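Suppose you are handed a protein chain with no further information: no name, no annotation, nothing but its sequence. What can you learn? This example shows the usual starting point.
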Amino acid sequence: MTEIKQMATAPREERETIISYDRQTETWHIYTDEPKHARKYEKYVTHPQRKGYNSTGRLIMLEGDVDNGKVTIRKKSPLTKAQKNHLQELNKTPAFLSNVHTDVQSQTSTN
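A reasonable first move is to predict its three-dimensional structure. Written in structure tokens, the prediction is:
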């Protein structure tokens, strides 16, 4: 049974995504109230138990079983030395010239 309702988006610090496995039924179950994850995994849950939408009609919550019962979790590979150097160089270039500079100055002067 699919329950579709309008709801408020959870505060960032309270959002969660839970993926669990039931060995007896060999099914993966997902619950998420992280809007990004709900939209990402929606295509893998064709018969959701619950869906939640915000006031603009955007999917923000999803609960149901993952179809075809296969979930893969990959660990990201570590950065190479060249990638680390590239990121360090990117971080040296100022992206937000005026606001960040004044914010950093005000924080360091009060400490």
